[in-house]
Amino acid sequence: MENNLGNALDFVGDIHGNAYKLKLLLEKLGYRKIENKWNHPANRQLVILGDFINAGFESKEVLSVLTELWSSRIAHILIGNHEYFLAWNYFKTGKEVFKKGSPLEKDYQRFLSEFENQEDLLIRYCEWISSLPIYLEGENFRAVHAYWSKQNEEILKKYRSLKELWSGFDDLKKKKTKKIKKVINETLSGKMAIFYDSCRMEKPEQYRVKWWKNLYGKNLIDGIQTNRPVRCPSVPINARILPDFEPYAENEKPVFFGHYWLQTLPYLLRNNACCLDFGAAKGGYLTAYRWNGERVLNANNLCWV
């Protein structure tokens, strides 16, 4: 999915239904809405890294702003796991998925309540989300919600949107469809270390790994990103726990992503790896990186509200 997007991009992390912070950040970055069209005086563009709905209280307003930015051709919008689960269930079930007792009821109750008596609007947004891509790659950067993998990219690169991807499911052999679903899950929810029988566990434990690091041989506690108590923190990570893993090399072009809810002031993970999820909907910061084509990222280019 190559795109000639230039070298003046503002990557924005997880918004999670916080329209107030989104508007503040857009203003801080210099984006303006004039006569119903968004623009930037320096012709910069946005890349939204997914998880823009749910969790917060203003998802409907966030969707309104993002679709305006998208229609103004000033924003490239990627989906995250929260958008994917919504759109996938709508794709499978239709508008019945918005009814009481659906798979969305537990995790999307707050989101769905914003669209009470506005089902047609919700359907339009689901259709729009289904038209969005899973990742973005330019000549000098990569962008994804949770996990960048060359192997996964090879599988996904032929699909320009979720709709294109899903339309092929029925035509694929079951084994191949299962593999693609695994690739989607990793790309949008992260690469997982899975423990089946360590420390006499009654059921498997799964943890998101810090895929931007070389993890084999490290203790579990040093290789995972989690905000919950860790079972067996000193267990070494190996190929059985984390199969088919290839860390993101330090000589690769910069990669921008969200998803991991880092609970500190914004900072750079590495010179070519930039996570921009700092808990905007949970008392943290909505964060952007102002990229100007540099190969080596600079913490001074982080911007947050």
Strands, helices and their partners?
Elements: E1 2-3, E2 9-12, H1 19-29, E3 32-34, E4 37-39, E5 45-48, H2 59-71, E6 75-77, H3 81-93, H4 109-113, H5 119-130, E7 135-138, E8 142-144, H6 150-156, H7 162-167, H8 174-189, E9 192-195, E10 205-208, H9 220-223, E11 255-257, E12 273-275, E13 277-278, E14 285-291, E15 302-304
Parallel strand pairs: 1-7, 2-5, 5-6, 8-11, 11-12
Antiparallel strand pairs: 2-14, 3-4, 7-8, 9-10, 13-14, 14-15
Helix pairs in contact: 3-5
Primary descriptors:
15 strands, single chain, 5-stranded mixed beta sheet, 6-stranded mixed beta sheet, alpha/beta, 9 helices, 305 residues
Note down, in words, how this protein is organized.
This protein is 29% helix and 17% strand. It is of the alpha/beta class. A hairpin with a 6-residue loop joins strand 13 (277-278) and strand 14 (285-291). Helix 3 crosses helix 5.
